[in-house]
């Protein structure tokens, strides 16, 4: 397959569907550009008018194995023929139990698993778990973080005030700490010193307003996703973890976007040599089937039967899709994410030399952000135009943060397909 845009966008069928949507769908949905999918294969998506796009967004970093992977289809079909759902909160069943065992083995043992349907649900479960276990009221999170939109998860989310506007009061006891963004450092720090500045700020908070012995957990994304695909400075996370340990504060790693192989390792925290007390996985775990998994250290499992549950969480077809996804990740996709991601990043860094308005190019594996503008002057206008032009030329991307374009293709992306993406992006940037 090759990207091919044959009609003006949106095409006639897409226009019709978009117009129907305007009449019945919630106005809270965003539509960054008028793409209306009909079918997918591998890393390509065809729209309802027969235009073909190279997909560098994967349904917001979800479709790990691309579209219609035969192994995933086979697993889904086989489980759907047996049963789809018998409520895992009430009854043990094999597909989901085996998945739990496999996930625990992947983090080296000593954890237990709770299944939900979405990243938000996973975060919500983690909030309840750490509060219940520690009996401590406060939670910490970073500015720029995105942890979901239910009222609990939204209380941690701090990537855009628009997400919170109109919904207060949120959960009390959530305190935000500036994220050590090396490209746009907070606290007046230099990029080199920003990690230390944030740690000092946190110690200052503990000394003045926030008793650390009343803090249950710090929720963090190892790489900020919705906040702009931003990596913390090298060595920051191990220092933060040591500081939290000194105060008996749990670390919850929100690996909803970074996990399931996207960065070239199963968990992004593995790159940092840091272990979390709780991991939340979702998005890429089941190749597009709704599933989240909260893995928590065995000793945190002091909550009682009935303390938490959900009707659909751990649904059997989603679990079968996750098993097939794990087979493929272990069978070479993580390695592919690392290799093709490095190729893509190198190509983009070359591109940065030709387009000085690209202020920063960063990422790990197939989680890559291009930041438009300088640290002082973000250029969301250029980012939005680049996204639109890329779409018109057959490349699907998504925005993230104040001024970044995120590239999160399926992990089955080949080097040739990555090169094709670079070509389209180059054309899109030239046309700005
Ligand atoms: C890091 C992170 N956490 C949580 C969520 C919420 O997940 P969901 O949209 O599946 O509820 C997201 C979604 O983008 C995310 O990126």
Describe the structure.
By secondary structure, the protein is α/β, with parallel strands linked by helices. It folds into 2 domains: 12-69 and 333-430, Aspartate Aminotransferase, domain 1; 70-328, Aspartate Aminotransferase, domain 2. The protein is 37% helix and 16% strand. It contains 11 helices and 15 strands. The protein has helices at residues 12-24, 58-61, 70-82, 94-106, 119-134, 151-156, 194-208, 236-246, 316-354, 380-392, 415-430; strands spanning 37-41, 44-47, 52-55, 111-116, 138-142, 174-177, 215-220, 250-254, 278-281, 292-297, 358-364, 367-372, 395-396, 398-400, 404-407. It has a 7-stranded mixed beta sheet with strand order 4-10-9-8-7-5-6, sandwiched between helices. A 4-stranded mixed beta sheet has the order 1-2-3-13. The radius of gyration is 21 Å and the shape is globular. The protein binds pyridoxal-5'-phosphate. Pyridoxal-5'-phosphate binds at residues 60, 118-120, 123, 146-148, 221, 225-226, 254, 256-257, 282.
Comma- or semicolon-separated keywords:
Aspartate Aminotransferase, domain 2, single chain, 432 residues, binds pyridoxal-5'-phosphate, alpha/beta, 37% helix, Aspartate Aminotransferase, domain 1
Overview in brief:
This is Gamma-aminobutyrate:alpha-ketoglutarate aminotransferase. With 432 residues, this protein is of the alpha/beta class.
């Amino acid at each position: 397959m090759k990207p091919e845009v044959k009609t003006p966008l949106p095409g006639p069928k897409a226009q019709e569907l978009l117009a129907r949507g305007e009449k019945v769908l919630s106005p809270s949905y965003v539509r960054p550009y008028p793409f209306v999918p009909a079918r997918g294969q591998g890393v390509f998506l065809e729209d309802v008018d027969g235009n073909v796009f190279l997909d560098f967004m994967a349904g917001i970093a979800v479709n790990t194995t691309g579209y219609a992977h035969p192994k995933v289809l086979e697993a889904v079909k086989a489980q759907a023929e047996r049963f789809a759902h018998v409520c895992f909160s009430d009854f043990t069943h094999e597909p989901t139990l085996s998945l739990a065992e496999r996930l625990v083995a992947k983090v080296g043992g000593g954890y237990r698993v709770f299944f939900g349907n979405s990243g938000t649900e996973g975060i919500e479960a983690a909030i309840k778990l750490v509060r219940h276990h520690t009996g401590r009221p406060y939670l910490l999170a970073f500015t720029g973080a995105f942890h979901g939109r239910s009222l609990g998860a939204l209380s941690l989310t701090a990537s855009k005030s628009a997400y919170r506007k109109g919904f207060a009061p949120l959960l009390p006891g959530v305190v935000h700490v500036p994220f050590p963004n090396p490209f746009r450092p907070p606290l007046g720090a230099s990029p080199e010193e920003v990690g230390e500045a944030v740690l000092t700020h946190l110690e200052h908070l503990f000394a003045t307003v926030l008793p650390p012995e009343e803090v249950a957990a710090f929720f963090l994304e190892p790489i900020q996703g919705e906040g702009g695909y931003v990596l913390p400075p090298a060595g920051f996370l191990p220092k933060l973890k040591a500081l939290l340990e000194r105060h008996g504060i749990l670390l919850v790693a929100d690996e909803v976007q970074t996990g399931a192989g996207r960065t070239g390792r199963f968990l992004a925290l593995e790159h940092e040599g840091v272990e979390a007390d709780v991991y939340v996985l979702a998005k890429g775990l089941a190749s597009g089937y709704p599933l989240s998994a909260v893995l928590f250290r065995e000793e945190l499992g002091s909550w009682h039967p009935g303390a938490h549950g959900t009707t659909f969480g751990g649904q059997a077809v989603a679990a079968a899709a996750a098993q097939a996804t794990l087979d493929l990740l272990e069978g070479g996709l993580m390695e592919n994410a690392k290799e093709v991601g490095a190729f893509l990043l190198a190509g983009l860094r070359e591109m940065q030399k030709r387009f000085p308005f690209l202020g920063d190019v960063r990422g790990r594996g197939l989680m890559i952000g291009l930041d438009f503008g300088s640290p002082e002057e973000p250029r969301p206008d250029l980012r939005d135009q680049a996204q639109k032009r890329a779409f018109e030329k057959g490349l699907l991307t998504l925005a993230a943060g104040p001024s970044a374009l995120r590239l999160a293709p399926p992990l089955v992306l080949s080097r040739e397909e990555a090169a094709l993406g670079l070509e389209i992006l180059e054309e899109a940037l030239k046309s700005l």
